[in-house]
Model the fold of this input.
Amino acid sequence: MTIIKENRLDQSDVLGQDVQTSAKTNWRRLFGLQEMGVYYALLLLIVTLTIITTYIGQSNYLSVQNLSNVIYQSSLIAIMAVAMTVVLISGNFDLSVASVAALAAVMLIGNADAIGFWPAAALAVIVAMSIGLLNGAIVQYVGINAFIVTLGTMTAVRGLVLIYTDGRSLSVANPDVIATMKSFEGGRHDGFWLVLVAGLALLAVAAFRIFQTRMAGKSLRPATLGMVVAGLFFLLVSWASGGELILRNPVIMMVVFTAIVWFTLSFTMVGRRVYAVGGNSEAARLSGINVTRYKLMAFVFCSGAAGFAGVLFASRLRSINPAGLTGAELTVIAAAILGGTSLFGGAGSVIKTLAGALLLYSLTNGFNILNLGANWQGLIEGVVVVVAAAIYTVGGTKAKSKTGG
Amino acid sequence: MQDNGPIMQLRGIVKGFPNGTLALRGVDLDIERGKVHGLLGANGAGKSTLIRILSGSYWATLGEIIWRGQPVQWDSPKAANDMGVATVHQHIPLVPTLSILENVFLGNGGRWRRSSAIRTQFNQLCERVGYWLDPDTLVSSLSIGERQMVSIFQALGTGADLIVMDEPTASLASEERELVYNTVRRLSKGEKKAILFVSHFLDEVMALTDQVTVLRDGLAVMRANTCDLDENRIAEAIVGKQIVALERQAESRVPLAVVGNDQIPRLELRDLASRGKLQKISMSVAPGEVVGVAGLLGSGRSELLHAIFGADKSATGEVVLDGKRVARDTGAAVKAGIGMVPEDRMAQGLVPDFEIWKNTTLPALGGVSMWNAIPVGERERDRGWEAIRMLGIKAISPEILVKELSGGNAQKVTIAKWLFSDVKLFLLDEPTAGIDIGAKTDILRLVRQLASEGKSVIIVSSEFEELLTVCDRILVMRDGQCIAERNARDTSEHELLLLAGGKSAATEAARH
Done:
């Protein structure tokens, strides 16, 4: 292929509206509220809580014990929020996650005594995924708005839970099942070496990439910077833990799950296509991407993850109340929004969603520690979500350049 | 009120943006009553910025706006509107779920949705323009041309004295354009309105306007009465002599050698049809052949491309590429080697929030990936650079988001998407609509170049002259039907217009 070239470039490039960003690293954007806002908020909150707890003489907020508690508490919601982020990126919406998780929990508790823990857990996740398939099929093939469809399934699935349990709480009796559940959900591992090695590995990769971009004279990418921050954070945590860092199973699962989803979204063709489908589904379709399949699979994936979270939830309590997890879908969506995920599709990051979930649970945790009572919690959380969305929107319009010509 | 002087004067308008871009560098403009003033310029010359300043969407950084002899400061489109400046925007902003009547009087402050006063006013508008629409039809059911008329009505409904029209004919077929021309003439000559007419079409500027201002790089480089000009001089002012020479070069192409019969056709259509949109069509395209599809809006020209590409699920019939049947699915079409550049580049062709490089590699991700699964960022960025270099996209790096590009450059990215995989058949739907002459020439040259490499191209265009320049063979479509086929050398723009417009279609049918 030969090259069409003219000297026209020099005419309008001086003024050309197409030229906005330089090839150099755009530090202001990299550290701007849009890119990093949720991390700043999380940091700010932790620092504030630390100062207050120290000041009023309570136990140190920053203790490894307390922080790992926060992470443990947020793990279920975080898993669902990460999966929700995928649905949001693909340009859809899922309100039914909490009901689906509750259904999965009920399926597990209701059947574990009879067929054993693992078959019941598999059944629970399969049932959850089939509801995702139903959601996706109605949205994609009938063409009803996802909000309406999942509002319906949210109510209907909660109804299924009530029918199945007949409105009563269920619990497991078989001691074998109880033992499996305990070890599945409550297992603890010393993650000191794991965190240390992960931190070092992240820093090493980041250093290599910085070196690479320096040599090539190209701009630094946010992901590299994130690696540096995360690496330092991991090292800090392993240092603070003093050689023994107990991680509970759900935390490990959350981290592994998020890492897998992050890798898939950021580095694979599947991930790129999910973003493309959400960013402009018609353009994606006319580029030969099977839009329907991608959007449908996002629903199935999200419901599957919700089912898994339900299994964890049931294993934690080893009994289930039919009203369990009611309203959790809003926390899940709030976490995704705090992480800067666009409700219009095409944009979002699971790492930031994770930070959003941690932010919400740090708030809850802070309220408990400071004995502020649950009454204020809803108000503060709501304000935080709206302020976050406002920052993203205002930052977004400012960053956008108005072009002429 | 001053009646003899210019109704609108701009003095030394400068507009800078926070990111350091200087879109306008001191523009003077005089618009007189009863005159049609043409505003021309390449993409990125500052036309849209100037219009937004006139219509009150932007503040001018420096300079003066003098309206009816008084300096004014507009802080919103509403303020400009109230003083008598109305704008007909390029991307017609109407509410599709409301009726024509409600759209036309959308800005009115009346209390009731329906009133007989408004109806009378609407009828008067129709009377003035000489064009009748049913006021109760929903806008969503109108064609683009009719929508354009509704937005002109909207501008008139405010009682404006200066009407700014931002490329009102860019997306219209020639018949519908005529309607807009008539309206413009009526308003300026009959009602003594001042009209600022922005366009890319030199012929319509010549035919329609009284005065012309040409912008280049934020400066007014030419200001003259239209009668003292010809198309060549305007074109030179817009882009510089170089480009005009290039276009001629493209025109004087050598016709391709006739392809032998023993070859397998690149593309074969067997009874391809789509209910209500496209009637049965069978044809074949040879390797290296450029086939033009001439037709007005709604003639089924885009539908034909969508049916070939498998984007139209309800289509029936067979599409055979290089002797192999292609399944009715866009994924299968891309895999088989068909690439499509759709009509609406931002809505159908590009992911606006993706960088240039991500858009460039979208249909052929496998080619830049490890193990056909993990795209390699470096390779993708190299593709982006290559696209910028190959097509002369005006962007400093592939990291730029495509939504920040101007029309012509965005279009080049849409085409670049298909240049990096083994695409054998290109389907181009209005690839040159709304872009400047330079970019247009680039794209037409690219089409010829693709053909010389043995690729086949089917190109749809409203600008028949363009088809004559670049095609080997031209199909004429009307009402979802292919009504004629011409060798590009044996036909003329005039004949194509007549065929597509349907005047001689009856005789044509009789002749076959």
